[in-house]
Amino acid sequence: MTEPALAHSTEFGRMYSRSLSEPPTVPSITTVIAQGSTSLDGWHSHMAATAVVKDPKLPASLGNPGALRSLVKEASRASERYRDQAAERGTRVHYYCEQVSLRALDLPHELEAARTALLEHGEHQFADRFDEWWDLYQVEPLAPEITVWNDELGYAGTLDLVARINGRLCLIDYKTKNTDRDGQVKPLDDKVVMQLVAGMKAKESLVDAGKGVWEPWAYGEDPLLLGVAVGQTEVRPMRANPAVLPQHWFKFCALRRLWQTSYDVAGAGRALLPIAPPPVGAHAVRSPQTSST
Q1: What InterPro entries is this protein classified in (predicted)?
Q2: Of 19-28, 61-70, 77-86, which one has max mean pLDDT?
Q3: In this predicted structure, what is the pLDDT of residue 62?
Q4: Which terminus of the chain has a lower count of CB atoms within 10 Å, N or C?
């Protein structure tokens, strides 16, 4: 995704400020959702093992402990490299999608530069498929990359796009996805519903980041919530089931309280304090007194 002006990386995850001159005060929607993440230990192990097996230096390293240690150390970072590369690719794809919206709105854009960046990385198919989807669904953009705020619960986030499709108001979140062996884009995670419903529940949207000007959120009344998987072979939009929105909102609220608890614990002070031994002689055993008869 692109980097919103008011978003900050902190030790408590991504957080948002009210203006460019103010410190961050609330967590981002994605930071809140991340409180419920499951363990990725198995995936990290798989990535490391795969990197070792596929490393061309492996045959020459056998029987050489030093070379093997170096190879293993390099392989242990395989998941981090994959994650970083995926994030960079996602940023490029999201940026292209944003530029398509800006062009449609007759606003300044860098569409050609965005497509060139994808082409230079061998990723132009993402742009091709996105253009096909955009034309097929006749997307009418209203507000790309719009930052929203909910002061009641205390969170903020940036929606990829507010648009109209076939006359229906839509809140849209793009997810850059790989393609499976059958040539189909991989499925979206259900967490996208939580992300979209949190955006829908916003109370304000940003007007001017420099001055910290906000206005009442104008797009929260019964929008269609769309998660859009953008791949190299296809773009697949998925609608959030209206029947499950309350449950996903309640879960988001619970995760927001969990984030706050972790934040409060971190600022409460040291959890463990040193303790000195008792003074010398303080624990001496007294001889029992004998009773006189």
Answers
A1: Restrct_endonuc-II-like (IPR011335)
A2: 19-28
A3: 75
A4: C
For residue 74, what pLDDT is reported?
73
Range of the domain at 114: 7-264
Residue type, 51: A
Percentage of the chain with pLDDT > 90? 75
Q: What is the CATH classification number for the domain harbouring 228?
A: 3.90.320
Determine, yes or no, domain membership for 15: yes
- Length of the chain in residues, anyone? 293
- Dig out the tokens for 151 from the structure: 């002061």
Residue with tokens 């990359």, as numbered in its chain: 145
Segment 147-176 shows an average pLDDT of 98
**Which pLDDT value is given to residue 25?**
97
Please give the residue that has the higher pLDDT: either 153 or 287: 153
Instruction: Label residue 60 by pLDDT band (50, 70, 90).
Output: confident
Domain count, the chain: 1
Contact between residue 191 and residue 291 where contact means Cβ atoms under 8 Å apart: no
